[in-house]
Write the structure tokens for this entry.
Amino acid sequence: MIVIGGSSSRDLAKELAMILECKCILASSTRFPDGECYTRIEGETLNDDVVIVQNTYPDQNLIEMFLIQDAAKRMGAKSITLVIPYFGYARQDRIFKPGEPESAKVMAKHLSIACDRVITIDIHKETVLKNFKCPATDIKASGAIAEYFADKGIDIVLAPDEGAAERARDVGERMGVPHDHLEKVRLSGTEVRIAPAKMDCRGKNVLIVDDIIATGGTIMAATIQLKEAGAQSVSVACTHGVFTGDSIQRLTGGNIDALLCCNTLESKVSNISVASTVAEELRKGKKKRLLRKS
């Protein structure tokens, strides 16, 4: 097996290859003066099963992924598995208004052209996976998050809303601590209270878990109210730290005691690694192929 890292996921690719004890090639990617992408994989031939690790967000990374796929295929890759740490366009999975495209379906269709398997991590909507023309699996970062916070003294795990309650349950059960979700209660025309739906957070070390943080506005508002309600500390962890604008500075400069994300999107707070989780899924896939051949 050979792991090829695209420009968006070099550190994750290197760590993944180290765990799998296989060769790692970092694709060389640059931009022409007009903005077009140039990508090259060093070597004459691959002649092995290839795993490409690359995000499809933002748009330039998607184009790079297409080019790396084509290069790997031309170099004789026996099979191509795409590990897409953060899959862009997953939220546009259906038509909301006339004239809109099914963006997730379009991306999945084109990514399927030159690959044999796809692995995503906490994709926003798993229904998107059915649009791939090859086997596609979504793996969860809950285990990696729970392992990171196992010795951090967390008393309760919260989801930011009821829709994300399953993620809080998964992390909480892995850590052996209670879980709940935050609930908004409108007190008046201008005042809203954000608090755990069932549990008391007074004197507790709280961990809020989510899949994506972009601006972080809801998380900041929730943290302020949790602290006012008596929470001793509030830590925040997400799988994908999109962090638009100056959101990292705003989040770390306020009431949040610790801000962490996984290394699906690399940043200064992406200290939770999903490499072992990805490696486990790749090993399972390899074992299944060998059993089919025997």
Observations:
- The chain is about 30% helix and 25% strand.
- Residues 183 and 258 are 22 Å apart (CA to CA).
- The radius of gyration is 21 Å.
